[in-house]
Design goal:
The structure is a homodimer of 216-residue chains.
Chain A lengths: L4 H8 L1 E5 L4 E3 L7 E7 L2 E6 L5 E7 L4 E2 L7 E4 L3 E7 H10 L1 H25 L3 H15 L5 E3 L4 H8 L3 H14 L2 E5 L2 E4 L1 H9 L16
Antiparallel strand pairs in A: 1-8, 2-7, 3-6, 3-8, 4-5, 4-7, 9-11, 10-11
Helix pairs in contact in A: 2-3, 4-6, 4-7, 5-6
The structure holds a DNA duplex (30 and 30 nucleotides).
Chain lengths: 216, 216
DNA sequence: CGTGATCTTGAGGGAATTCAATGTCGGTGG
DNA sequence: CCACCGACATTGAATTCCCTCAAGATCACG
């Protein structure tokens, strides 16, 4: 029977509660643990020398994270429960068990693909970034047609490389366009096809040619 | 004696020449090989639905690449010689040899860190992006104080999420500032400390007040 | 009901893009 | 050898998009 990483963490790890805002690890810390989110939401981020903050990822229930520890910091966005397992233990296990080794590799590969997609988000227009972000979140939470954002606007902004004002404006703009509705500031009822269309539309228009109907 | 991945590729792989501009693999291809650059330069990129192109990485002699195959395409920027090895063969070897498994993981982790740094580049101002790019290249090629860029401006632009005009203007701007000299358009004599200073300067300054403890 | 945190909206300015034209370099053929 | 060509690069003018600064609105909570 193959050992599944997620299960291993549950069997071998301890569950620790982190209150809203609590630090899980810091950039300066040695990377000692891997984590699985049992409940709540986590942000992984880096603070640049100029004081700005870049959020590298949001981790939701079920996600495993901590691979980027040592480079990034992590904090609980909401009250959270985390399963923790020592990296040492996993690496030792991987040395004896190929399944585990392979899954550590897979996990890293998945993370790599995630960051590559993040790059693709960051080169687009504000509208496309926000639309892309909403689609990403919609894919990750079960509920159909509606998302409850666990993070404040500032976190969204720092994830997308925008300002909080631009995020806010863009959301109302998307609402006016009919791509989403905002019953409350954190709840987003979305029209997936409309959001997809925005991404297909090419924010700064395809140079030269037709370039119609962007931003109204 | 531990098996070193780079050596394995050389021992087990075949050397293939690729002329300037030749495709190495395409996004649609199955990811069958890992490559090591013996000579020349390679670009890995993705073409977005709107026609724009994002370059994910440049690979120089000595670099191993191909992990992102299946998601990205790769082309030779200059005439290149590549060592190729089947992924299958490596994965099979990894199943028996922990060293190999561990190195495949390390390679992926390094790539992950590289892409994370790319994200940090992309959220900065044009000047910082170009300065950061030059510093990155300077770190990767041996010669001290001078770089020979193997890629055209368009590639630099697509790597940095800028237009070719902005890259060009920014380079002349850096030259006027005294951070670099451009004997020819592809050769860059750089002053590392000046470039570093530009990055420290924070293109867009920290907003608001003292930059204390926002986000709790 | 006030207080602070979060979010939205507006006005103005700056930075990068777009469009367009000119400049440079290496190669090829007259 | 030089004129011409195409690929690559630089520069300028106008525009667009996003940021900055500032004020107001909304929400949660004591």
């Amino acid at each position: 029977m193959m050992k599944v990483l997620a299960n291993l963490i549950e069997e071998m790890g301890a569950t620790i509660p982190f209150p809203r805002g609590a630090a899980i690890y810091r950039e300066s810390d040695p990377a000692s643990y891997l984590y699985k989110v049992a409940a709540g939401t986590v942000r992984s981020f880096k603070t640049l020398n100029n004081g700005r903050r870049q959020i590298g990822a949001f981790y939701l229930p079920g996600d495993i994270f901590g691979l980027e520890a040592g480079e990034f910091s992590a904090e609980a966005i909401t009250d959270a429960k985390l399963l923790m397992i020592e990296r040492k233990a996993l690496v030792a296990l991987a040395a004896r068990d190929n399944d585990v080794a392979h899954q550590l590799w897979s996990l890293t590969s998945r993370e790599l693909r995630r960051v590559q997609n993040h790059v693709l988000l960051l080169i687009q227009s504000a509208q496309e970034r926000v639309a892309g972000f909403l689609l990403e979140m919609a894919d990750r939470v079960p509920a159909g047609g509606e998302i409850e954002l666990p993070m404040p606007r500032q976190d969204v902004a720092d994830y997308l490389g925008l300002t909080i004002e631009t995020v806010s404006r863009t959301l109302t703009h998307l609402e006016r366009r009919g791509a989403i509705t905002l019953p409350t500031s954190r709840r987003v009822v979305h029209c997936r096809s409309a959001l997809n269309q925005i991404n297909a539309e090419s924010g700064w228009q395809l140079r030269g040619t037709t370039g119609q109907a962007c931003y109204q």
